[in-house]
Task: inverse folding
């Protein structure tokens, strides 16, 4: 592919992603997830996926849609607590899971993208992360079918560290606020999260962008991910239902004048929590 990396159709952009592929996916909770590309995989019914992502979405959005249809075979994640179907599949032996400390997961993706095969970290020393034994997969009866192996350790300057391997994947799916035709990306605020790291780890990275601009429109100093890490760019429309930005948990507080909770319409999956305001404080 030349310098113009734009593919107008999300389904076409993931058409060559095969069954059983490894896949790094950006986002944190539902923030910054490549939802249009996830829907494209759902439409193609691409299965047996080995997904590396901070989490697996919720039951009816994000990666949770692929999980619900049985299209994910293995997850490498740091947090999986918002998805009941995830818990059911994992405990029932239908899904394999490697739990990784969040900072370690971020560095494993970055290291893989930077060509670093492994690194030492203090995170997890003295826990089952180091000792092994955490269930990667269960038997249907709940017993352990596959357990995490112990990790190599080493002492540096009188402190113990674990050896962790860098992560590379066949594909990566990310979402950016702005992207140009050469694949240079800019992310909006906290939606940056795991997206640059996932993009670096993928051998073929597909970026859905909310605003497509021409090369040169993004000042070089404002590029947050260089186009060298991106092979395909897919523009998504703001009114595309598949590109909807959902909120995982909405937190509201009483209005300053009425004392009533201030809330806006949301999705059925949102859990709303009213946070009391102490008089005279915030």
Result:
């Amino acid at each position: 592919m030349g310098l113009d990396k734009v593919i107008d159709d999300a389904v076409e952009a993931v058409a060559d992603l095969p069954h059983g592929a490894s896949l790094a996916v950006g986002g944190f909770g539902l923030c910054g997830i490549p939802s249009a590309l996830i829907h494209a995989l759902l439409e193609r019914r691409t299965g047996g996926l080995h997904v590396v992502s901070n989490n697996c979405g919720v039951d009816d959005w994000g990666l949770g849609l692929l999980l619900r249809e049985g299209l994910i075979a293995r997850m490498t994640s740091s947090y999986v607590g918002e998805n009941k179907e995830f818990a059911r599949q994992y405990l029932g032996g239908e899904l394999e899971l490697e739990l990784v400390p969040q900072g370690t997961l971020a560095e494993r993706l970055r290291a893989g993208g930077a060509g670093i095969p492994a690194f030492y970290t203090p995170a997890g020393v003295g826990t089952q992360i180091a000792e092994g034994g955490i269930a990667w997969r269960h038997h249907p009866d709940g017993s352990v079918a596959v357990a995490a192996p112990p990790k190599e350790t080493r002492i540096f300057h009188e402190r113990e560290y674990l050896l962790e391997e860098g992560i590379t994947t066949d594909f990566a799916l990310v979402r950016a606020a702005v992207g140009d035709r050469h694949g240079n990306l800019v992310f909006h605020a906290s939606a940056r999260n795991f997206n640059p790291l996932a993009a670096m780890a993928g051998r073929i990275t597909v970026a859905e962008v909310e605003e497509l601009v021409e090369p040169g429109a993004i000042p070089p100093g404002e590029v947050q991910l260089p186009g060298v890490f991106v092979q395909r760019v897919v523009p998504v429309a703001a009114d595309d239902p598949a590109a909807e930005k959902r909120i995982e948990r909405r937190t509201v507080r009483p209005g300053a004048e009425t004392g009533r909770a201030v809330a806006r319409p949301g999705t059925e999956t949102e859990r709303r929590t009213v946070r009391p305001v102490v008089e005279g404080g915030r």
The domain at 10-176+191-206 is CATH 3.40.1080.10 (Glutaconate Coenzyme A-transferase). The chain has seven helices and 15 strands. Residues 116 and 166 are 6 Å apart (CA to CA).
